[in-house]
Amino acid sequence: MSFSITTAGRARRLAAAALVTAAAMGSLVGCSSSSSASDGPTTISLSMQNPDVKTADPATWAIIQAFEKANPNVKVEVTGEAVAEHLQKLSIAAQSDTLPDVFWVYKSNAEDMLKGGKLMNLSPVLSELGLSDKFPKSTVSNFTSGDAIYGVPYQGLLTGLWYNKKILQDNGLQVPVTFDDLLAVAKKLKEKGITTISNGANQSAFSVWSFLTDLDRFGYADKIDGILNSTGSFNNADFLRLYQHIAELRDAGAFASNVSTQTYQQAVDQFTSGKAAMLDAGVWGSSAIQKSSVAGNVGFWAGPQFKDGVGNQNIIMNVASAPLVVSAKVSKDNAKLAAVKKFIAFYYGDEAQQMLVDNGQPPVTTYKPKVDPSSQSALRAALDAASAPGVSSPESQPDLLVSTPVANAMYDSIYGVIQNQLTPQQAVDLVQAAVQSK
């Protein structure tokens, strides 16, 4: 996923898409192969948004290994690519009717595939497996279109700002509550040569989670339908104020001087090495934080409340991530259908949900997890922030409610202001242009 907002950056993105198009047909055809021979296990394909699921997504990998051990007659064939390439391949596969059996996809793409008859309605499956009431109602509604439930939650999106208590205390600072508090913290830490918020724009365009939550503090949930049906605009006074606040943070020196060149992983390293007061990330970062020297001094903050915001400010992003969906072709293969049902039943069973927790992820069902207060103190901090008195959550993260081009424009707009490559007005115009070009 590209971060560049220059013409050259867009050209590289187009070139990459062309290469993906050339390679995609062959790579995804294998993902939709028929069931294994009768004397062997049934194989189901699982296509994910990580090139190396074993390393990058240990929670999912652990669940797959445990599932195969418990179900020796089912083999899960795992493949994956980076998000942009993955979505491009799925788009091509949908057109050629070669979708994988089970796959991760953005909500907006899934709804388009459902309309095209490419996805299974999972409502009867969830009812049969006794899972209908194991998901929060907001999760079910988020992945429902008409009478069809087209997806189940892959993982939870609990995002915010991890913070280093010691850095704040050593500099006579409190954990911020409001945006003005955060701005004051940034100015003070800038004087000491300390980065306030660690972000990484290089190869990680989507890593602006806390700022996506801020959109909801300026009325995003109430505005997005109008923006998409052209009765409203992303270029509105409320969103413009948010981007102006991002520019204020930039001018106060809140971000690393190398934010343009460092990746998300390098941003994590900057925080875990004690060189930044905060990290823009989510609960998935808890494992790396827990293994670092700063683990004992880390808390989790939902993000700033704005006196000029719109609507409820006491919110935290605690929603289902983009869904896992099932190809409609699975319903025509009895062996595959039975295997997929077993996989879904296992993934959303208590054993697998605890595996998510053991790997630094919150459960996505109503399962009450076991969290060790010492060895999982970072995860505990995030879960406590999500359950703090009076805090609520939007139903979905803003970028999951729009198409991939619009989501990319949202990332580029935020990083464009952070890097001082876009003015706030140019930033909202960039996203609006992407909406209009659909």
How much helix, percentage-wise, in residues?
40-55%
The main β sheet shows up as:
5 strands, mixed
Would you state the CATH class of the largest domain? Answer: Alpha Beta
* Helical stretch tally: 19
Question: Radius of gyration, Cα only, in angstroms?
Answer: 22 Å
Average pLDDT across residues?
90
Strand order in the largest sheet? 2-1-3-12-6
Would you identify the regions where 5 or more consecutive residues have pLDDT less than 50? 1-37
Tally the beta strands.
12
CATH superfamily of the largest domain: Periplasmic binding protein-like II
CATH architecture of the largest domain: 3-Layer(aba) Sandwich
Cα separation of the termini? 19 Å
Shape: globular
Would you kindly provide a written description of the structure presented here, covering whatever features stand out?
With 438 residues, the chain is of the alpha/beta class. It contains 19 helices and twelve strands. The chain folds into two domains: 7-121 and 324-370, D-Maltodextrin-Binding Protein, domain 2, CATH 3.40.190.10; 157-319 and 380-436, Periplasmic binding protein-like II (D-Maltodextrin-Binding Protein, domain 2), CATH 3.40.190.10. The chain is 46% helix and 13% strand. Helix 1 packs across helix 4 and helix 3 packs antiparallel against helix 16. It is globular and about 70 Å long. Mean pLDDT is 90; it is low at 1-37.
Blueprint of the fold:
Layout lengths: L6 H23 L12 E7 L4 H4 L1 H13 L3 E7 L2 H14 L5 E3 L2 H9 L7 H6 L8 H6 L1 E2 L2 E2 L2 E2 L2 E9 H6 L8 H13 L3 E4 L10 H8 L3 H9 L8 H15 L12 H9 L3 E7 L3 H5 L7 E4 L15 E4 L2 E4 L7 H14 L2 H9 L18 H10 L17 H15 L5 H13 L2
Parallel strand pairs: 1-2, 1-3, 8-9
Antiparallel strand pairs: 3-12, 4-5, 6-12, 7-9, 7-10, 7-11
Helix pairs in contact: 1-4, 3-16, 12-19, 18-19
